Amino acid sequence: MTEGTVKRWLDMRGFGFIETDEYEKDVFVHHEAVKGKSSLREGERVRFDVEEGDRGPKAINVEVIS
Q1: What domains can you pick out in the chain, each with its CATH number?
Q2: Of 1, 36, 47, 53, which has the most beta carbons under 10 Å away?
């Protein structure tokens, strides 16, 4: 699993981006990938798995850790 910080969250659109040291690009995250919540907040620390999407890395199995 990878850890990162929610860099940007667009609540009205239901997605955002996670910043992590392991990837050059920010990792896309959709609200459906977040366990136990329907949204995230900017600055939250998260743990997640990554899969390659059509436009780059995509977070799945996202858990808030702080």
Answers
A1: 2-64 (2.40.50.140)
A2: 47
